[in-house]
Amino acid sequence: MIAEFGLAALWLAAALALLQFGSGVAALRKGDSPLAALVRPVAVVQGALALLAFAALLLVFAETDLSVKLVALNSHSAKPMMYKIAGAWGNHEGSMLLWVTVMGLAGSFVAVVERRLPEPTMIATLLGQAFVSLGFYVFLLFASNPFERLNPVPPEGQGLNPLLQDPGLAFHPPTLYLGYVGLSIAFSFAVGALLTRQVGPAFARAMRPWVLGAWIFLTLGITAGSYWAYYELGWGGWWFWDPVENASLMPWLAATALLHSCSVLAARNALRAWTVMLGVVAFSMSMVGTFLVRSGILTSVHAFAVDPKRGTFILALLAIYIGGALALFAFRAATVTEGERFAVTSRESALVFNNVMLSGILGIVLMGTLYPLVTEAFGERVSVGPPYFNPMSAVFVVPMLIVLAVGPLLRWRRDSLSRLRMPMVVAGVVGLAALGLAIVLAPGKVLPIIGLALAPAVAVASLLPLRGRKLAQVKLPLWGMVIAHFGIAVALLGMAAEGAFTTERLVALRVGETTPVGPWQIRLARIEPVAGPNWTALEATLEASYAGGKPILTHPQARMFWAPVQNTAESALLTRWNGQLYTVLGDKADGDANGGRWQLRLWWKPLVTLIWLGGALIALGGLLALVGRVASDLRRLVASDKIAFRRVRQGR
Amino acid sequence: MSAPETRSRPWALWVPLVVFGAFVALFVWGLARTKDDTVRSRLVGQALPAFDLPAAIAERPGLKTADLKDGKPRLLNVFASWCIPCAAEAPQLQKLAAAGVSIDGVAIRDRREDLGVFLARYGNPYARIAADDLGKLQIAIGSSGVPETYVIDGRGVIRYQHIGDITPDDVALILGKLKEAAQ
């Protein structure tokens, strides 16, 4: 019953999206069409209906209604409740429903709140949003119905991929989705602005909170995803340049560029066409990402919902939306009037440079990700990995970070570098000192040395915009920028330190034996079987003592899930302020008799946690900026309402 | 996408669309192609490279190129005692040997004692067993792992490469390939 209810809500939502699109088109063609008044309310109801459909899906998963095919395929009655709920979006159909739900809700929110833009631009924006949603509704209803029934009802479900049964899963994909969807709203704004040729500061200010929000979620999603892969896959790495990881990184790069060009447009009314272009590119990167993940077109370590048929559908949507938007851009961008001019040494220039570098990295990542496909088209089978991505992206990252250190100190329009001599000397000295230290500590490791040298310099420089200000009066967006830039430096330090100083040991130990790794002594105390709700495992107890200190117990496991059957290595981590000890229990090395040796992989990774701490700081910076912007928007809204109210009262 | 303002060149505004079109074309091709994830040796259809490897155990002779050019098709099985799928395919190799197929083995990075235990436990279907301690022959014939099984025709030409263990379902396939190689 609940499933049918959900399906009905989904159909109704799709119908309303069609109505929203149609009335939007009518209103745009004929300025005073009565249908114009329909667009906003319809957008609100559409979002509410999508939310109802998603709630219905959550409910069937929560009660493990095995007559619903999706539940039978992806859930199991023995699973803990959290993973039953998370199972609702841990599969293709459910995640697409989550996508349209969030998109619908975002559309409702825009429809209710946004009053700054001229009404035709607003209608064009909501029209664009409905058009995008419509494609996903069609996809859901005709090619991936999440509420399909199963007859006969199976006695038990097939379970969820054990790799996905982890608290990280409950939050990682939805977080990324919120980011992707936020970019779809930015895309709708860009299309709306192109349709009505209203590209200006008001457009940038209306779009910016959405870009910021999307960017925050993408940052959090990538950070969480990186940590999830780090501890769940048991390979000890935090970034693999895997197609699926790149698929989430590319929208982030584009969103970062968009965020910065948005502030140029909002503050200085420059970079008009470029900002619109980035709005299209950012969303197209989320679509490309979804396509790469879902189509299985590239071989990836974590392709969990692969199906070429779905790939075809997503590709068709991609071609229609992005192709359409780019064609619109080609026709209209020439008529978008040119923005303000600025000097070479100015904050605008620094931001343009940042944009070009970010686009460069985006290009590098995109080419590297698609390279296997390109070469295969020419009959070769070649793949590229870290030896390509790391140095190639460093070519763009290093200049970008140098400009990141200087840019925020520059004034808008025109400035001179001589004014900045002091701060540049300070940051330069810090950087050179760090460089010397890094060369001594990690000889021969080029990229980590560059990172170790740049990170402190960027950290110092990122705090300089606060110099000479009363901290209590510093506005939230400025705090946001400072903290986000500082977070970049922190993450960079973590990455560089991990690359420079990690020690790895692959050993076979008998119970009772001890091995060193970095400053640690690890003793294999015992190996015991343990059982969880839907798995059994062999659990090692390791006594780890840091630099001769008191031993701390840690418990890596080799887990065997029985629904579905799969073995996973559950790593165990010991976190100290200065790094992490990473332990993985492998197979039995030899012999069936007692006293055999067990394989252990051990890593000591100094400062590795800074990578994710930095990511969290970047997201926090975004959050502060978002709160600051929204608060000042609200103040302005309240003030203008008051003025209007007084005018009415005074009869003017 | 690296030129921020493109006012003076209207045609440049079409560049993004063209680039995007190229990507879509690539994706369409990628979806349309038949996907094949296995890494095949380029040597299928070519003669075996020249080699001469010592015996891995005392009971069987070693293996050199000339041994494989006696006019009879045979199997060349790349295996190791430390490899678990190799144990899983042992009954199938026994079955093939019992059906009169001659099988030569190449033991990769193995120890004589371990190999003895392995063969004693899972049986020894091999006519010859070569010791490839450095994986040289394995690399030369384009094998990317153990176990792999090659069908070699009477002139020493590789006719077929089977990647992974031979499951009971694969036996008929292998016999078919041997028959093809005999023609």
From TrEMBL, chain A:
Signal peptide: none annotated. GO terms for molecular function: heme binding; heme transmembrane transporter activity; lyase activity. GO terms for biological process: cytochrome complex assembly. InterPro entries: CcmF_C, Cyt_c_assembly, Cyt_c_biogenesis, Cyt_c_biogenesis_CcmF. Its main location: membrane. GO terms for cellular component: plasma membrane. Keywords: Cell inner membrane, Cell membrane, Cytochrome c-type biogenesis, Lyase, Membrane, Transmembrane, Transmembrane helix. It is found in: Cell inner membrane. The chain crosses the membrane at residues 43-62, 123-143, 177-197, 209-229, 249-267, 274-293, 313-331, 352-371, 391-410, 422-441, 447-466, 478-497, 607-627. PANTHER family: CYTOCHROME C ASSEMBLY PROTEIN-RELATED, CYTOCHROME C-TYPE BIOGENESIS PROTEIN CCMF. This is Heme lyase CcmF/NrfE family subunit. It comes from Novosphingobium piscinae. The lineage of its organism: Bacteria, Pseudomonadati, Pseudomonadota, Alphaproteobacteria, Sphingomonadales.
UniProtKB/TrEMBL annotation, chain B:
InterPro entries: Periplasmic_diS_OxRdtase_DsbE, Redoxin, Thioredoxin-like_sf, Thioredoxin_domain, Thioredoxin_ResA/DsbE_sf. It comes from the Bacteria. SUPFAM superfamilies: Thioredoxin-like (SSF52833). GO terms for molecular function: disulfide oxidoreductase activity. It is found in: Cell envelope. GO terms for cellular component: outer membrane-bounded periplasmic space. One of its GO terms (biological process) is cytochrome complex assembly. Residues 42-183 form the Thioredoxin domain. PROSITE patterns: THIOREDOXIN_2. The chain crosses the membrane at residues 12-32. Gene3D superfamilies: Glutaredoxin (3.40.30.10). Keywords: Cytochrome c-type biogenesis, Disulfide bond, Membrane, Redox-active center, Transmembrane, Transmembrane helix. Belongs to the thioredoxin family. DsbE subfamily. This is DsbE family thiol:disulfide interchange protein. It comes from Novosphingobium piscinae.
